[in-house]
Design a protein that fits this description.
Length: 677
């Protein structure tokens, strides 16, 4: 785990000026890598790296150079199947000087070029510079678990989605946007289109655009190449095209018990691979089925094959946020797991309070970098402060909701699909069995009207002139194809934002989160099966439930209500009323071109007087946007970042290295690794 940053094609940065810039960018990502830092600089190209050690402390320093001096790597993340890839590369005649996964990545690129990325099973955002061809390659993992941002600095950006650009010859990039916007190379301006989509449709992280004008994210599965001929963005993987084609196909393997057993075997393999580490590993435990599944599999592995759980230790540390006396409290489910597997588990709990949230308010905004739709990520933020005291890496249960229909609205999509496919009998059967879930969904939407409260629509809070500018922006999603909807949510509408929350909150405290469910092999297998592997007899995540039923506490396996890591936001809003009202009444809020300040204040007041019913989600979006604008757009350029609340100690290691000589062109042509014909 690390932070990477750099620039390409900026002649003015040759020499000391470029070195100073790389050091500055490194400072704003220091929390991502407290164990080492290094830079590479050559002519108009610079690459910076901050390192968090999890694999091979002695041999994994970066930037890393290939043995022939041609390639330079700076990588954030971990490729879990590096041991298998290393063996394959050794068979091809390549040799290694370390035990690092980063060296495997570098040699794999040397051997296979961009095709290596499809072979990787892991999470990464990386930069590889070809010193011979003068080409920079940026790559991001299949599911976009690890971040990678970039900003063209010498032309007009056209469309990253289509890969079409005006000709560029310069770019700046980093793991977090802070390093870009505080570099001085990019003007700090809000992206009004992203702001509108966020306020109107609750969308964010769903496209290549960010809240910062001119700053873009590389999407999951994408690669960016830039050289003298310009910049190109493309997909190195066909995974999502495969999933979409499968979703539209009528040919799938019938689901049965054997399918559940195969899924369990694949998931167990994924978990086992993500236990590879030279540092300690724990597990997040929310009380939901997903995180409990991971902790359960690790507990079983500790009994069955302890050689594969050495990084865990004698007892698995589990970390939970609980909210006693709140509707969001899941402690009874956490305790059910601990009661069942207590001899293998060391449970840790924390209880975030509204007073903690107020104290951490500014750092929470700074950590997330861009607005989010609720205060929910604060539960992770607070919990991970505790995790940092006990371990370096942790497993987290993100992914199954977008792969196996974990949210209640997916039932509606499935029912519409059954009607479209004329499966009327199944529609009636599933509808009756799912009455409790559907009733809650309908009640949330219409309860206020039954009690005569004024219902506020999100669009009423948006300045009318601003809304008119973006009236062509629409939000459309798949309504009658469950698997197609899941592909969209996995790649755009839901999973990418969750990945951002988890990455920022973890890395703020120099922690590495590992996601066993975000595995391309699992995704391909799920989409190969009939839809009743997902929803059946009103139960979602059917295959996961069937696979884990013998091992999970019954209280967890038979849960009907999903909460997940979140805060008791409605309750907290009552305590923070005065602070929030102060923001709504501020001059800066009223002066923004985005809000109808009068309507926002009226709705907020009516909400607390019991006369109106606007959701806290609507209020929070306006509040977070206003605070984000103050911090990242309005404020003077900072020279140094704020210290994390609990920074990790230790001696910082400088990993900058002397540049190795690069082979001449005639030596590189037809180059083969030693030991080959």
């Amino acid at each position: 785990m690390s932070g990477i940053a750099g620039y390409y094609g900026i002649d003015e940065l040759a020499g000391q000026k470029g070195y100073d810039l790389l050091q500055r960018m490194n400072r704003f990502q220091a929390h991502r890598g407290p164990d080492g830092e290094g830079v590479f600089q050559e002519q108009s190209v610079g690459i910076a790296h901050r390192r968090l050690v999890v694999i091979d402390e002695a041999g994994g320093d970066q930037p890393m150079y290939s043995s022939d001096g041609r390639y330079v790597l700076s990588m954030n993340g971990l490729v879990y199947n590096y041991i298998e890839l290393r063996s394959e590369l050794v068979q091809l005649g390549y040799s290694f000087s370390s035990e690092s996964d980063a060296e495997v990545v570098l040699v794999a690129f040397q051997a296979w070029g961009n095709d290596c990325f499809e072979r990787f099973n892991g999470m990464w955002g990386l930069a590889i510079y070809d010193r011979l061809e003068k080409r920079l390659t940026l790559s991001r993992d299949h599911f976009g678990i690890k971040p990678l941002y970039y900003a063209p600095v010498d032309g007009v950006f056209d469309s990253a989605a289509s890969g079409a650009y005006e000709k560029h010859s310069a770019v700046v990039f980093s793991s977090e946007i802070k390093a870009i916007v505080f570099s001085g190379l990019v003007e700090r301006l809000p992206n009004d289109k992203t702001v509108y989509r966020y306020l109107r449709y609750r969308l964010h992280d769903d496209t290549e655009e960010t809240f910062f004008a001119g700053v873009y994210q590389l999407l999951g599965g994408q690669v960016l190449e830039i050289d003298a001929s310009g910049m190109r963005v493309s997909y190195y993987t066909g995974l999502f095209d495969e999933l979409m084609a499968s979703a539209k196909s009528s040919r799938h393997t019938a689901y049965d018990k054997a399918a559940a057993q195969k899924y369990y075997a694949l998931l167990k393999e994924s978990v086992t691979m993500r236990l590879r580490s030279d540092r300690s590993i724990g597990s997040a435990l929310s009380g939901g089925m997903d995180s409990t599944t991971l902790a359960t599999i690790v507990s079983l592995l500790m009994q069955e094959d302890p050689d594969k759980t050495t990084a865990v230790g004698e007892r698995l540390p589990t970390f939970s946020a609980v909210f006693p006396n709140s509707i969001n409290n899941e402690e009874e489910y956490i305790d059910a797991f601990v009661d069942m597997y207590g001899k293998n588990v060391e449970p840790y709990k924390c209880t975030p309070q509204v007073e903690d949230f107020l104290e951490d308010f500014d750092d929470f905004i700074y950590t997330l970098e861009q607005p989010v739709i609720s205060t929910g990520p604060y539960a992770q933020y607070y919990m991970l402060r505790m995790v940092a005291k006990h371990t370096t890496s942790f497993l987290t249960g993100a992914g199954p909701d977008e792969m196996m229909a974990g949210y209640v609205p997916y039932y509606v999509v499935y029912f519409k699909q059954l009607i479209a496919e004329r499966h009327y009998g199944r529609f009636i059967k599933e509808g009756l069995a799912s009455f409790d879930k559907l009733f809650r969904l309908v009640w949330v939407r219409f309860a206020s009207r039954l009690f005569g409260k004024k219902a506020w629509d999100d669009k009423e809070f948006i300045n009318k002139d601003f809304a008119l500018r973006f009236s062509s922006e629409k939000y459309q999603t798949v309504q009658d194809n469950l698997k197609l909807r899941l592909v969209y949510d996995l790649t755009a509408d839901s999973a990418p934002s969750i990945a951002r929350y988890e990455d920022r909150c973890a890395m703020r405290f120099s922690l590495e989160g590992r996601l066993p469910f975000a595995n391309k092999d699992l995704a391909r297998y799920i989409w190969s099966l009939t839809d009743d592997a997902l929803i059946h007899n009103s139960w979602n995540k059917r295959m996961l439930r069937d696979a884990m039923l013998p091992y999970l506490p019954k209280k967890v396996a038979n849960r009907r209500k999903k909460i997940g890591f979140s805060t008791p936001e409605v309750e907290w809003f009552g305590y923070m009323k005065d602070k929030y009202l102060e923001i709504f009444e501020s001059e800066s809020f009223a002066a923004r071109p985005y809000f109808d300040a009068a309507v926002a204040k009226e709705a907020f007041t009516a909400y607390y007087e019991g006369r109106g019913d606007a959701t806290t989600l609507a209020f929070w979006r306006m509040l977070h946007l206003e605070l984000w604008l103050r911090m990242f757009i309005d404020s003077p350029m900072p020279d140094t970042p704020p210290e994390p609340p609990h920074p990790r100690g230790g001696q910082l290691k400088n990993t900058s290295q002397a540049l190795p000589p690069i082979l001449q062109n005639q030596q590189v042509v037809g180059l083969k690794p030693s030991g080959t014909d």
